[in-house]
Amino acid sequence: METLPENSSPVPSSSAMWKNYRVVSGHHGAVRSVAFDPSNSWFCTGSADHHNKNMGCGTGVLKHTLTGHIGQVRALAVSPHHTYMFSAGDDKQVKCWDLEQNKVIRSYHGHLSGVHCLAIHPTIDVLLTGGRDSVCRVWDIRSKSQIHAISGHNETVCSVLTQGRALAQHPQERCFASASYGDIKKFKLPKGESGDNGTVVLGLEEGIPSNKRNQGHWIARLPYTLSHGSRLVTCEGDMTIKMWKQ
Questions:
Q1: Concatenated DSSP letters of 28-83
Q2: How many helices (H) and strands (E) does the chain have?
Q3: Which CATH number fits the domain 19-245, given the four candidates 2.30.33.40, 1.10.260.40, 2.130.10.10, 3.40.1400.10?
Q4: Cis status, amide bond into 190, omega within 30 of 0
Q5: Global pTM?
Q6: Cα(118)–Cα(35) distance, integer angstroms
Q7: pLDDT by residue (tens digit) across 106-120?
Q8: What is the pLDDT of residues 86-95, one digit of tens each?
Q9: In which element (H, E) is residue 149 found?
Q10: Which residues, including other chains, have CB under 8 Å from residue 188's CB and lie 6 or more apart?
């Protein structure tokens, strides 16, 4: 097997079959979001049951259950710089969790409706959030102050970069990927050229049973590798988390 460069991530083959090797249960509502620890040792999930759960990447074993939201948890992100995890949901709340104490240490107030997405700036202590109030808000992580309120959308803001649930930039190539219910597609920058309606990076129908497709899948690929292999995690409307490999 080809040796991968350090801190690189393999590109899934569009023709390879993906095998579901583990199903993780524990949530009591549809699982709405997933995010990975930058060290690739664990991942976290957010659910319609109002809970966040932290699980081991290799085993899927539950490490912690974090409670504090009073609505569906729609978005999660783990800081690459601090021992913080951020969560947001239908209760209009954006929370910062200290993972050494497993408790909320800051809340960011300002959204007028449910919060559907969030992202952490890669180099400075800034958090971006967006939601049903059609506004993207920029926060100072430390002071909890709102730095900007970026308006212009007329409907729900569902994704925000630097990183989001449905959009991701390639670390080296000038391109980005978008995820939908059916597949993941690759687009070229700066014009968003997509060839034949987007290059399919992964057709979910190839590996995911057809009877699960209509339940909705929230997809995340591990940022690094496990035993030089690629892994996928899907968060399901059937209250499970599924782990896949080629």
A1: SS-EEEEEE-TTSSEEEEEETTSEEEEEETTT--EEEEEE--SS-EEEEEE-SSSS
A2: 0, 20
A3: 2.130.10.10
A4: yes
A5: 0.68
A6: 11
A7: 999 999 999 999 999
A8: 999 999 999 9
A9: strand 146-150
A10: 174, 175, 194
